[in-house]
Design brief:
Distance between the termini: 50 Å
Strand content: 5-15%
Number of helices: 17
Shape: extended
Structural class: alpha/beta
CATH superfamily of the largest domain: P-loop containing nucleotide triphosphate hydrolases
CATH topology of the largest domain: Rossmann fold
Number of strands: 11
Helix content: 40-55%
Length: about 425
């Protein structure tokens, strides 16, 4: 594309910089503007993502239609569906009248969904239907409505990680990401930070009729070496602050150091991603352990009930009482106790006792009604948590005939966690 065209776009929309990645993003926006494809604009907070949906709309066949920008992160979860799709009178408390949503208002035009990664899962399902069929239903209504809206979305969220964590629908992501435009962070744009500072300082000078602040060479190098976690928005705030409060108009590194916040080495996306990864890991393990404990509790309760029924059926009424001298493993309950070991055996912790199966309980007692002796030893140690986990997963897969989604629902874990565990334990 002709470089002069890109420069005209920069001047029209107030975009400053000569970064190659920035120029490439503008070229992509101009190329896909005439085609009604969904676009996803990605980048960190403060990089200027909001300019690109406007460029796309103004150079599309819909340029004479309406353009709406919606910040999805600023709308409460309880009202987001009403804002986007509208509602009927009386659909919820406070709905005193009908309301047209943004999809109805922007019919024929362009709808910019900023911070789309913050949408609730329920709203994501509604949005997916609109993108696929152009149909939607008002909150509290039953009538299906049609709309013709081009969607341009933007987010600073790591979408791949959000999908892995179950916070964003994978099918919706691929619908939105037909064309992707990535906006570089300010620290990746070379000398653009110095150009932007000069532009913001001149704007303040013209607006408030004051001498502009200027950076000397050492201060410029210091400015370019900063990481700018808040990107262009942070730089603009810095320039405006210095224009008003700095006593000297010629800025040195000493003066600049008083205005620059302490350097941070973590970017927005990395810090959020690392925290989410740690939480997800613990949650997955905790879910599986809870499932194992619940199953064990249920099995013990069923075992006690079965033994009690067998006692009543056989009209057995032993009356042993727990004692510190009894060398036997017993179950205590409101019903008479039942021994599962010989009196002449040494006491062992419960985790070294042999598992009692239903088939063993159904076998008739000997003539002397002596309980069967448990075989204990080092070879009969309990399974590790990994072994218990593996067995639980294997049983769930067998029960559901290999259907992994159904098995994941039975275990109370996500499909992704189940897939990872299957691969880890070699159950493929």
């Amino acid at each position: 594309m002709d470089n002069s065209t890109v420069q005209r776009i920069k001047q029209r929309y107030g975009i400053v910089g000569n970064c190659e990645a920035l120029n490439r993003a503008i070229e992509i926006a101009l190329k896909i503007a005439p085609v009604d494809l969904s676009v996803l604009v990605t980048g960190e907070n403060g990089v200027g993502k909001e300019s690109f949906p406007r460029i796309i709309h103004d150079h599309s066949l819909r340029k004479n239609k309406k353009y709406f920008a919606v910040n999805c992160g600023a709308i409460p979860e309880g009202t987001i569906d009403s804002e986007l799709f509208g509602h009927e009178k009386g659909a919820f408390t406070g709905a005193v009248d009908q309301r047209e949503g943004y999809f109805a208002a922007a019919n024929g035009g362009t709808l910019f969904l900023d911070e789309v990664g913050e949408l609730p899962l329920q709203t994501q399902a509604r949005l997916l239907r609109v993108l696929e069929t152009g149909e939607y239903i008002r909150v509290g209504a039953s009538e299906v409505r049609k709309t013709d809206v081009r969607i341009v979305a933007a987010t600073n969220v790591n979408m791949e990680k959000a999908i892995a964590d179950g916070k964003f629908r994978e099918d919706l992501y691929y619908r939105l990401n037909t064309v992707s435009i990535s906006i570089p962070a300010l620290r990746e744009r070379g000398t653009d930070a110095a150009l932007l500072f000069r532009k913001f300082a001149l704007d303040m000078s013209e607006k408030y009729n004051m001498p502009p602040v200027r950076l000397n060479e050492d201060a410029q190098r210091m400015l370019l070496a900063y990481s700018w976690p808040g990107n262009v928005r942070q730089l603009k705030n810095l320039a405006e602050n210095m224009s008003v409060t700095a006593e000297e108009r010629d800025i040195t590194p000493e003066i600049l150091s008083h205005y620059l916040p302490q350097e941070s080495h973590n970017t927005q996306i990395i810090s959020v991603g690392d925290k989410g990864k740690e939480q997800h890991s613990f949650e997955a393990e905790r879910e599986l352990l809870y499932q194992i404990l619940f199953d064990l509790r249920r099995d013990v309760a069923e075992l006690k009930r079965y033994v009690r029924e067998q006692q009543q059926h056989k009209d057995i009424h032993p009356t042993p009482t727990p004692s510190l001298t009894d060398n036997a493993l017993t179950f205590e309950s409101a019903q008479p106790s039942v021994k599962f070991a010989n009196d002449n055996e040494q006491d062992l912790p419960y985790w070294e006792a042999e598992e009692v199966k239903d088939d063993d309980l159904m076998q008739p007692n000997s003539a002397t009604d002596k309980p069967a002796t448990s075989h204990r030893g080092k070879d009969n140690m309990p399974q590790s948590l990994d072994d218990l986990e593996r067995d639980m997963i294997r049983r769930a897969l067998q029960t559901n005939n290999g259907r992994r989604k159904a098995a994941a629902d039975q275990l109370g874990i996500s499909e992704r966690t189940l897939y990872r565990k299957i691969k880890e334990y070699g159950l493929e």
